[in-house]
Design brief:
Blueprint: E1 17-19, H1 20-27, H2 31-39, E2 49-51, E3 57-60, H3 61-68
Antiparallel strand pairs: 1-3, 2-3
Protein name: Excisionase
Organism: Ramlibacter alkalitolerans
């Protein structure tokens, strides 16, 4: 490759739908705050989050971005 290993950088882009734990890291909100947005109806299912086939809550990072910008579908 020509570059020394100390010069290589890795960038990891998360998937569109991520667990609450990863969403907390990406957004800066705590997992508790994210759960509260869901429980209080601030976030809507199939807009800002959805449930995976196994029942886990997954945050839609595209939906989060729209919400953060004050937009909703």
């Amino acid at each position: 490759m020509g570059a020394q290993s100390s010069d290589l950088r890795q960038v990891v882009a998360p998937a569109r739908f991520v667990t609450l734990g990863l969403a907390a890291i990406v957004t800066g909100y705590t997992e508790k705050a994210l759960r509260r947005k869901i429980e209080e109806g601030v976030w809507l299912q199939d807009s800002e989050y959805r449930r995976a086939p196994d029942g886990r809550i997954l945050v839609d990072l595209h939906g989060y971005a729209r919400w953060a910008e004050g937009e909703r579908r």
